[in-house]
Every structure is written in structure tokens, then in C-alpha cells.
Amino acid sequence: MLGFHEELDIIKVSRKGSSNSGRDTILPKAETFMGIYPPSFENLINQFIRLPGIGQKSATRLALYILRSNKEHVENLADSLIEVKEKIKFCSICFNFTDNDPCPICLNENRANGIICVVETPGDQLAIEESGIFKGRYHILHGVLSPLDGIGPADLKIGELISRIDKEGIREIIIATNPTTEGETTASFLFKLLSEKESSLQITRIALGVPMGGDLKYMDRMTLEHSLKSRVPIHL
Amino acid sequence: MAHISPAIIMRTRDLGESDLLVTFFTPDRGQLTGIAKGARKSRKRFANCLDLFCLVNMEYEPQRKSSLFFLHSGKLVKTFCGLRTDFSSLALASYLVELTEILFPTGVVELDMFELLKNSYNSLNEGRNNEIIRIFFEARAMMLAGYGINFERCCKCGRTYTGKGRAVFQADKGGISCLGCEHESRLSPGMGADTINQFKVMQSETETKWGKLSLTGEMIEEIKPVLKLHIEYRTDRRLKTAKYL
């Protein structure tokens, strides 16, 4: 007869088995089509499958498009892929992607010095830049604090942000991380760190609330709570 | 047929242009993973409810050809704002999710586990002591998963533990042994009688009743290495999120 904990060990093993079967369904990306298409074509499909958001069908469609395209087009695509990998690097100041270090924004003397807008990714910086409203400098963290994904403070460009405060004489830091659990925690973490480092520094957070064109009926309680707490007087 | 139940969001991952792959924990079906079509653009079906650790009312149904569920809509019930105020709370909330994922993978259902996770997030939200929340969760979750520590008798000589004197934890046996059979060491940490009594209370509680616990700092320091060894031995791994605690 099995002892209490020996029985538990068996349960543990069986659970591990069920765990793996569950995980397999979450990770659908696998190399497939073995033997159906010519090896070079299969290889191309498998390369596309590795891209984010591309499944088997999309990969096959893209591979077929490449096959049907003229050679010049395909060569240009291949050259662009290699060029972007070879030339694009991080700006040594703001950590945005650039082909010239420092990047054009950091070199632009017409932009306001002393204000830094901190964002999660280059895509967020691009969104703010496209709006044309902000004329200061940027700092890209390249992620947010996310223990589940193994990202801690040391994995973000936080040390580099702190070193910019003295070097560039920064007066205000706008924290523009996304209003998600991880983005908000990153904002809180930065606020505590920066206020301890420099008490005279003005640290602000982008406003949260009802979006333009939004419908109050569909707003969740937290968004409404934020909107009411951060209400502002009307200025005509 | 669509099913509606409370759920805690455990993980989300971008999928394609506007979809999300969501892992969530329900009281009646345990851990599930589903696709929320258009969730990143939808302002109506998933109004801000698919954020990490949120408590939502989820409407979902199984897909015919996949083990993934199809998420119809969700309504936010509670956002645990306290988790967002500092990194240590986020790290602990993430740790609780990771431990739940390991102990209760897809297909393993335990009704009390959902309540334990929800109550732990409530406690974190209210700003209770993170260390007590952690050890209570660990002890109770291990018990619910079938890995409760046996405090009844010495696992080596079989002598009944009367609730007096120190005892030594044995990770490989999942129980305690008397000081006559084993010496205290880093791999066999000792516990006092009061600590063992509190440990038994934590394991036996069906709900998070903090009032019944009277843990001192010394007891917490004794319990922490025991739970660490116990979890690592039984799950056969070191949790990724533990390094941030």
C-alpha cells in the first residue's frame, strides 16, 4: 500500500502531464507541413511563423506571395531586412531606435530642454510624436515591470533615466506608461525612485479617464472613478 | 453554450492585430485559456476588464476544434488598485498567480482555490502585511493541492507529536521529525511548538480568516524556509517570480 506522500507524488506526476497538455494548446507555433511543400518553401513558411501574430495560414499566404513576386521586389525586401538589422541601433540618450546616434529628436535644439516624457516602447513615443503636442525630450524604458515575464527594475532603462536628470538639468518628468496594472506599478515605482533622488523635480502622470468619443454607459467603475477624481475646471 | 462565471485574469498576451490570448482562473472550471477577439480595440465587450489580476464576470464558451475558449464579453467586478501602488505588491500578486498555475494547471479544479486567490488579492489591496499574505497563501494552496505538511507524528520514528517542543521539517517526507531523529540544519529547518500550531491553523482554514492568526516575526522567519523547501521539492522547480519578492 502506498504512503500518503507517495500517493501525492503520483498525483503530482499526473498533474504535470495534464499541465503539459494544457500548455501545448497555448503555444500553437510549431514547424509543420513536413514533406508537403519543397524544403526551401517549407523553410520560408517556418521563418514567417516565427514572427509575432503570424499563424500557419498567414505564413503560407505570405510565402506564396513572395514566390509569386518578381525577383527585384524580393531582393529589395531581403536587403531591407538586413539593412534594418545592421544599421538601426538604440539612441545612447533616449534609447529610441535610430540609424544615427544620437537620434534626430535628441539632437534637435528647438525642442524644450528640461522636460522628459517617459514611455514604455518606441511605438508609444511615435504615437505622442505624431500628435505633435509634446515638444520636449523622450526616454524609452523598453518595457514595464512584469515579474510574470521575468522583467524587473534592472531590465528597464531606469538607471539611464536617473543619470539624465543631473546631466541635462531636468525640471519635469512626465510618466506616460500605459494605465495597465504593470504600467501603473512602473509609474509608482519611478515616482518613488525619482522623488527620493531629486526632491525639487516635478513628476507628473498623464491623465486617465473617459476617452474622446467614449460612452459613459460602457465605462468601467475604475475609469469613472479616475475621471471624477481627476476632474478639471472648465476654461472657455 | 456560453457560460458566465467570475474569473481572475492571470495572464494576457497579444495575438494578431487586435486579439488577446487570456489565461484566467474560475471557481468551477479552474484555469482556462481563451481568445478574446478584438479585445484590444473593443470598448464595449471588454471595457478595461482584461487587465492583469482583475476580477471579472466572464462570458465564454468552448471552441469545437480547440481546447481554447472563445471569450464573448467580460464585465469588470473589481480592480485591486492596491496591487498597482508598489512593485513588491505586484511581485507578490505575480508570485501567487505563478504558484496557482503550477499547483492547479488546466483541468485541475478546486473550488476553494479561487476564493483563496481572490481573498489574497483583497488583502493585498487593503495593504495587509505582504509576508503574512504570502505564507498563508503558500500553506493553504499547498494543502488544497494535496501537499499539506503532516504535523501529526515524526515521519522517521512514528512517535505522535504532542504539540510540545521543537520539530524539524523534512522536505522529502512532507512532514516533521523529532529532534531525536534529525538535527536542525539549513535543509531541515526547525520550528517551535507555537509556529507549528499556527501552521496547522493556516492549513486547516477554509477561508482567509486573519483574525485567527497570531503570527509573530519570529514565527514568520521559521515558516518561510520551510515553505520554500516544501514548494521547491513538491513542484520540482524554483518559481520565476520568487526572485522579486
Measure the end-to-end span of chain A. 83 Å
Helix content of chain B: 25-40%
CATH topology of the domain at 108-205 in chain A: Dna Topoisomerase Vi A Subunit, Chain: A, domain 2
Number of domains of chain B: 2
How many helices of chain A in DSSP terms? 9
Give the radius of gyration of chain B: 20 Å
CATH architecture term of the largest domain in chain B: Up-down Bundle
CATH class of the largest domain in chain B: Mainly Alpha
For the secondary structure, the number of strands of chain B is 9
Order of helices and strands of chain A: HHHHEEHEHEHEHEH
Strand content of chain B: 15-25%
Give the overall shape of chain A.
Answer: globular
CATH topology of the largest domain in chain B: de novo design (two linked rop proteins)
State the low-pLDDT regions of chain B, or none.
none
Structural class of chain A: alpha/beta
Task: Give a written overview of the molecule.
The complex is a heterodimer of chains A (236) and B (245). Chain A is an alpha/beta fold and 236 residues long. Helix content of chain A is 49%, strand content 9%. In chain A, α8 (181-197) links the parallel β5 (172-175) and β6. Chain A starts with a helix and ends in a 7-residue tail after the last helix. The relative contact order of chain A is 0.06. By secondary structure, chain B is of the alpha+beta class. Chain B folds into two domains: 3-79, OB fold (Dihydrolipoamide Acetyltransferase, E2P); 83-148 and 185-244, de novo design (two linked rop proteins) (Up-down Bundle), CATH 1.20.1440. In chain B, 32% of the residues lie in helices and 25% in strands. Chain B contains five helices and nine strands; from the N terminus they run βββββαααββββαα. In chain B, strands 1-2-3-5-4 form a five-stranded mixed β-barrel. In chain B, strands 6-8-7-9 form a four-stranded mixed sheet. In chain B, a hairpin with a 4-residue loop joins β7 and β8. At the A-B interface, α1, α8 and α9 of A face β1 and α1 of B.
